[in-house]
Fold this sequence. Notes:
- The structure holds 4 protein chains of 4 kinds.
- By secondary structure, chain A is α+β, with helices and mostly antiparallel strands.
- Chain A is 26% helix and 15% strand.
- Chain A starts with a helix and ends in a 9-residue tail after the last helix.
- Chain B has one domain (66-322).
- Chain B has helices spanning 2-36, 52-62, 73-90, 108-118, 120-129, 133-164, 169-179, 189-204, 229-254, 268-286, 294-322.
- The longest helix of chain B is centred in the first third of the chain and has 35 residues, at 2-36.
Amino acid sequence: MGYLLDSIRALGVTAKNIGRKPVTVQFPKVIRERQERYRTSFALLKDEQGEERCVGCLACERICPSQIIHMSSTKKESPVTGKKRGYLDDFTLDMTACIFCELCVQVCPFDAIVMLKVPHEPGYVREDLVLTMAKLYENAEKPLTWGNGTKLMEMQEPPKPAPAQAAAPVPAPAAAPVPAAVPVPAAAPAPAPVPVPASAAAAEPAKTEAP
Amino acid sequence: MQGLLRGLVYGGLIITVLMTATAWGMWLERKLAARMQSRIGPNVVGKFGLLQPVADLMKLLQKEEIYPIGADRLLFDLAPFLVTTFAIATAAVVPFSAEAVGADLDVGLLWVLALGGLMVIPVWMAGWASNNKFALIGGMRAVAQSISYGVPLVLTSLVAVVFTGTMSLSGIVKFQIEHGWLALWPPGPGVVAFVLFYMALLAESNRIPFDIPEAESELVAGITTEYTGMKFGLLYVGEYVHTMVGSAIAAVIFLGGWDGPFHIASGLHWMVIKTVALFASVYWVRWSLLRFRSDQLMRLCWLYLVPVSLGLVVFAALWRHFVLR
Amino acid sequence: MNLEMLMQDPALWGLGIATLAFAMLAVSVKNLVHAVLWLGMSLLGTAALFAKFDASFLAAIQVLLYVGGVVVLLIFGVMLTREHDNLAAFRTTRRPVRAALVAIALFVGLVHAILNTPGLGDPSAGKLVSMPDLGMSLLGPYAFAFEVLSLLLLAAMVGAVVLARKRDPGQPSAKKLIRHRNLGRQVVEGLAATDEVGQ
Amino acid sequence: MNARHPGPTSDRYRLEQMDADADLMVLNFGPQHPSTHGVFRIKLILDGEVVVRAIPYAGYLHRGVEKLLERLTFAQGVPIVDKNDYVAPMTNEQALVMAFEKLLKIEVPRRARWMRTIFAELQRIASHMLWLGTFALDMGGALGGGSGVFIYTFRERDYILDLFEMVTGGRFHYNTHTIGGNRHDIPPGWDREVTKVLDLIESRLPEYEAMSSNNAIFVARTKGVGVIDKELALGLGLTGPILRASGVDFDLRRDAPYHAYDELKVNVATATAGDCQARAQVRVAELRDSIRLVRQGLAGLPEGGINGGKPIKMPQQFKTMTGQAYVGIDTPRGELGTFVVAGGGDKGTAPYRCKIRAPSLHALSALPWILPGHTVSDVVVILGSLDPIMGEVDR
């Protein structure tokens, strides 16, 4: 009898769901609205004067956990500013092994490499999945995602003590009782915890503590 | 010769209609299941995906035939063919209306039950011949389940026979036109008999919650594991036809067949409506419930369904003797 | 005698030959499973013959009991045997002459009995036994025999259950489960020492 | 051929020696099987349909993550562990990052810790939703009611992934934690979205329960099936819901608080039966508790910075030659531990050794104990109730 009643309840649930709108998104025809930070594929940017931002500093090539970025560059005189700087000879990014960790975007000091908001088109051969320099510059026309090196770094920088203290109101911790025995480290947000030794705080490639 | 001709024509007609109905029954099920799960279902091939069965057929026909190593080729080839044959043969005696009946046998109900019981042999053959352990377990489960649930199926149909005093399916309908549908009358036991018949039907046609022979989460795909192409298609179609015919028979025995308030084409439409409603409800149940374990299935059958249906038979005999005489 | 008329019916000939062929296959193939299958087909052919003679009740019963019941039982029997594809192993004696004699004697006897059956060849004979008549006679004049047969079957069933219980005590007993579980523990303890487990 | 590796020809496990009075059959369950939750193989030795012995084989999804972590620097290592437990990826990051932070002695700001709590609990909801769906799938089949539950829970889980997408930009490979804190701050308006999703899930939970865990068929399939008693659970090192379902009241979130769990009260759900039903009940209770925890976390989320260390600029940024650290956190599957030894790589920029203690691996080790005596149908249910994630088992 229990089987019967519970079965009827289950039948009721499915009947209820017939009335709900289908949630399926028919992908190629309808494209789901992507969030601002949605990230896939890559693009290389040029600056306002139409000059390539990338100077071939190898930061992204070094940080990439999958080691899929390869580049070579030469130093030339810039036609715009007249200063000597690096120019890319070649740049490839192998999407077959990319894990979309966004580290290359984060480390780029010139905001040259950014990620796209639209996915990479599937290819028929593996070569289609390798982003060459030309493809990367073409991709710059497509909608870009929110993040670039500067913004990501800004977001992660430990807050400067003075302005942070002024801006941040201290919200009450949640209503839940706090176990008395447990020490609460750094309950106040104000003095930003800077465990990094002071010497490293300013240096650009942060050399952290070496015991 | 005339009888033969009539048989051929009606047989051809029934196969065509039944297969077509089954094909779009599958479409209906897929649409229904999709909506139950907040999906859209087939909508690419044709308007509302109505040509999906055709596309499926084309796909199945193009597929490679694969024989597993060590398979018993004779049985492997024969099984899907027999499944579909037996399923369709059952339909020969189903009265779709007062006129539309292939063979109005005296023993129509017996014929239906006999052929339904026969389904187990090709299913077992398919499981045995595949030379696959999952298929073999599926086949053995199918045999055990089919034999067990055959008992309540026969007993609940016997309730109808005792009430109506005839084994002819059209006779049963005619009795119901006079006295009222057996599912509603006599009040109480009639509904119980119908529910038991329905459950046994679910089990006989291997539908959730009694689909342990296929049990794709345990046995990969049960008896159909090694089948490809149109042979798989035939096994699949056989199951659907079985369900469709079973729904039609349930409609005939318990829901008054072609009986209904308005009569167009001598009540054929009522039969179609009832059959499709029962068919859809089988799939509603299928997409809503979880599955029993095989031993629970047996316990449910022998400890609950069989005694209750035996009691119903006794009740029917008493009712017939004291009330209906 | 309307034998001539019957002889001219091609459907009858086809069915008869098919039934016989299936029967021959059933006793001649080497594969036990196939033998059961051909037996089933042969029984189906018999049922079709019954139906051809308008004995639809008999046909339905033939299908229900013989094909649906007996063949399935045989299948179970086959599943319990070890050698399925070598029936020759079971044929320990081959005495074709004696076997032929027995078969011929049986055949002659059957033909004799059939030819002496009253009302043979009357096409309306099948129709005479209607379903209600059959039911009435089973529960009327032959009620005693019917009940005795039922009792016999019941006794056989009870006996089968008793026999089956003796070998394997019914439901998966706690003892058996515990034995299995202990085996599992042993395996794990063994696995602690080994990585590869051969079979 | 020594005692330790007798090889396949050893007669130690010869089939004919297993059970004298039974016809046994070997059934290779997996690696390609619809309900092994990935690629996993159990060699089942069956007596009829009853399992006599079960020998699990893991390793079909091995990707050498631990070795990779030795090669990659601290800064690079974080994104690659996302794929270990692919149902709750953030918890992998958290466990790894916390071990690195402990080793490198970097303190995490309070806001980052609260955010990590919220993420962890959202991951728990997502993971348990997926588990409920797949568990029903194991019982109801892909062509039955199970798939209904599966698609319902998947539908709602997708909303949670949407939330993560808003914060991190990824739906699956987040890489949102960094050594010292988080990489992405919560965007404005995110808490409203979270509340909406949680309300939706909470209102629909009874529906899933009606189709699965409260259903009589579900109870019949799970009650008394796959019992892991207290001793076995403790002996095998099982953790998480499985341990709690066996009657051990242990939860790292409460007993060794990390993140912000010292400021939030965690209601630890326990059951005593130790069977599949108990595990299901514990998980469903955790699902509800996690919803409450996320709400509280959002209400009490402090302001401030999200990163205590320096943002990653180069691979060799973090280095240490000495020390070792172990951090265990309570993921949806149990204690996910990371043990890291310093001093690898170029001048200590990478771990010398990084061992990941995966809860699923320990859960699977219970199989040979609990499977014998059950039928093939139960094998599927028991495996599902352990909620193994093969990416984590094989790493």
